[in-house]
Amino acid sequence: MEFNAIYVIVAREFKKFVREKSRLISAIARPLVWLFLVGAGMSRLVAPVGGVSYMQFIFPGILGMTILFSSMFSSISIIWDKEFGFMKEILVAPVSRTSIVMGKALSGTIISTIQAVIVLALFPFLGLKLGILNIIGVILICTTVSFSISAFGIVLATFYESYESFSVIMNFIIMPMFFLSGAMYPVKLLPEILKFIAKLNPLTYGVDALKHAISPLATGPMGPDFNVFIDIGVIIAMSVVFVLMGGKAFERKG
Amino acid sequence: MPIIKVENLVKKFGNVTAVNDVSFNVEEGTIFGFLGPNGAGKTTTINILCALLSPTSGKASIDGHDCAKESALVRKSIGIVFQDTTLDKDLTAEENLIFHAYLYNVEKSERQKRVDDALKFVDLFGRKDDLVKKFSGGMKRKLEVARGLIHRPKVLFLDEPTLGLDPQSRTNLWEFITELPKKHNVTIFMTTHYMEEAEVCNDIAIIDNGKIIAGGSPAELKKIIGGDVIYLKTKDNLKAVDEVKKALNVDASVKDGEIFISTIKGDACIPDIIRTLGDSVLSVRLQRPTLNDVFLKLTGKAIREDESSGADTIKEEVRAYRRRHQS
Questions:
Q1: Which residues of chain B neighbour A8 with C-beta distances below 8 Å?
Q2: CATH 3.30.70.260 is held by the domain B227-288
Q3: pLDDT tens-digit readout, A35-86
Q4: Which of A96, A126, A127, B139 is the most exposed place for a label (fewest CB within 10 A)?
Q5: Which of A22, A97, A107, A253 would best serve as a mutation to test chain B binding (most B beta carbons within 10 A)?
Q6: Closest Cα to residue A186, out of A226, A231, A225?
């Protein structure tokens, strides 16, 4: 592993992220729209269960969404780098493929976590009471989930050559991942076939872990679906698998 | 001591053979020109030398390191300027170079100095804080050459360095490139399909359809032509060729709609030709041999004529093959 290379890959992404104000604004606007437009509307239809309102129920899911979109976009920038040639500059350098994947995954992790923390700051407006330990727990989970989704995005990005494929990824991967993650409705209430797909979705376990951290006492449909240790175990295992897969995918030579 | 050694290199993409049994050596500190039409196998050869592609068979080495097996060492000792720009347009000139310095693990104490020197070398120091997207094509290309030198490579690859540049920036870039071996103690390996640009090379290899068809210094290659060339257009080229051959005992043939006569003393030969053919002569021009003539003589076609047809089909096939085998 080349730490200078990892550092500079992260620094480049971060610099570009800070420079593109519109990207940050739209990244923050999306969760707000879902939380306050969809969430507020649905609250009229869905009564609170066990002291958890619908807006409170979807809050972990909205954090998950923030992470999903920003980690995926960050990783998909690999396709842009390929299209505009910059990836070649990285690939001809004496840098191992694992370092490149680590650099890209860490970029996605940092950028997503920052956005998730901004969204997390809204919790008092939803009537949630989080102690300092809950907040630290939420941030740690966000970081791990960001890393695993970024690594997943990198594996995905290695399969695509041009940015036309972007809308395919958006419609057929990112949106279904969001809806089948337990973000908007509990996994346990899904029909069997969808429940099965939800269990294969890496984001499901992230959202579930966030539910544990945000509403630890909630039970029933508004509560978490899985054991918190299973959630964390799956997230970590997936991070490792996706990073290794990404490294392998980058090594392929024609 | 040759710094680049290529022996019997072969690269196949499916049933397309892009590089077919290619061998050559490049001496340290020289400018080596790799010439050929688009799709001849130049870029594929470069990609193998840069350890981006593995060869189907054969051997390539740079500075004693095997390109297929010691890719990390090979990558450390080379710099590359690709055909298409590989700068990040959303970063500044300086940021692009800093990125490179980190990527190649340039020592911390050296980093800023080397970046500043590189920017000064290409006269872009004053614009170091401008985003690269504001730069012209010529400026970008120079910045890329400067970037390629930051880690002090032994060999600098330039793949069609002047492609897409206007004539003025092209001349400008050439002056700059010819100074590199002395100033930076680097060997230049460049490809081009502009024959006139290859005149600055110490050595040249001409590649066509994946095979090396000639090699040597520009002067040696021009000897293949055997002196001057007279281009002649007449009312009936085929008939005129026979007449000229019979009357003057010279080597003449019709290529690309012109009669192509190679002779030792061209200027003295023209009056004889006109006397022989009389009224049927439409135009005559005398040319001292260029590398373009060499290519024409060796392959029977001008180097740029099949740019759009055959070459692009091969490129397309290669791309399609690589896409299939990557995903």
A1: 98-99, 102-103
A2: yes
A3: 999 998 898 888 888 888 999 999 999 999 999 999 999 998 898 898 888 9
A4: A127
A5: A253
A6: A225
